[in-house]
Amino acid sequence: MEFQGNVAVITGGASGLGESCARMLVDRGSKVSLLDLNADKGEALAKELGDGAIFCMCDVTDEAAVAAAVAKTMDAFGAIHFDINCAGVGWPAKILGKGGRIDMNIFQKVVTINLFGTVIVMSQCAEQMVKNQGNADGEKGVIINTASAAAFEGQIGQASYSASKAGLVGMTLPVAREFADYGLRICTIAPGLFDTPLLGALPEHVKDSLGKMVPFPKRLGVPMEYAKLSMQIIENAMLNGETIRLDGAIRMAAR
Questions:
Q1: CA triplet 154, 108, 166: central angle to 5 degrees?
Q2: 3-state secondary structure (DSSP) of residue 88
Q3: The dihedral sign for the CA sequence 103, 162, 81, 16
Q4: Where exactly are the structural domains of the chain?
Q5: Alpha-carbon dihedral of residues 76, 7, 57, 224, nearest 10 degrees?
Q6: Is 161 a catalytic residue?
Q7: What would the pLDDT profile of 41-77 be if each residue is shown by its tens digit?
Q8: Residue 78 vs residues 2, 107, 156: alpha-carbon distances, Å
Q9: Burial class of 64 by CB neighbour count within 10 A (0 to 12, 13 to 18, 19+)
């Protein structure tokens, strides 16, 4: 699809992967709606990006809040063409650890945010996308979800995170088949070790150590590399129903 004049909803849009996608889309002439819980960062970024950006305070697990954000986007820009879902959390917890069994509230919250939240947003965005005028291929919209290398090689303590991300991988093809009748495409990106707010609390020497685990290049990925792949997915109509690993060939060890 074309970028110029088209509109993107980006969850987790105030920082990290989402912020980089927003910047790149605006540079290409798109308009962006940033959905996030961090109002300070979200409002500041929207102001910096100018008239082609708005911020929507939004909990992706709250269907009413998502509906309000989608309505605000439609009021501001009149359509939604792209949905990039970057919102997510990853709290480590063993199913059975030294302190006993896992707190199921933690497991449920991780799956609810990462998996259910993504489905809530993409379903409401897709509902608006089908109203668009299709291009020469009949294409009306593109959805990009964010999984993780942990969907394939989750480490000890990552059961909830891996389950949520594996769910995103598992639904990519069936959703692509379902959405084909509507002229919508969907792909999932599975990043490896990226320098995002999820790793933000780690000391620099720990980040350096993690980066050296990557076969090549021997460093953490940067959000702009995720954004570049997102742009390629939007542009290339034959990318559909696919999960793409973006990880420098890393295969995570057990711990």
A1: 35
A2: coil
A3: positive
A4: 7-246
A5: -150
A6: yes
A7: 999 999 999 999 999 999 999 999 999 999 999 999 9
A8: 16, 38, 45
A9: exposed
CA gap 155, 142 in Å, rounded: 31
Fold of 7-246: Rossmann fold (3.40.50)
Residue 55 CA, distance from chain mean position: 16
Distance CA 180, CA 33 (A): 25
Q: Are 169 and 147 spatial neighbours (Cβ–Cβ below 8 Å)?
A: yes
Non-local (6+) Cβ contacts of 92 within 8 A are: 157, 158, 161
Distance CA 161, CA 148 (A): 9
Q: What is the pTM of this model?
A: 0.96
Neighbours of 140 (CB within 10 A): 23
CA 32 to CA 117: how far, in whole Å?
19
Angle formed at CA 184 by CA 85 and CA 186, multiple of 5 degrees: 40
Share of the chain above pLDDT 70, in %: 99
Marked catalytic residue, from 55, 82, 107, 161: 161
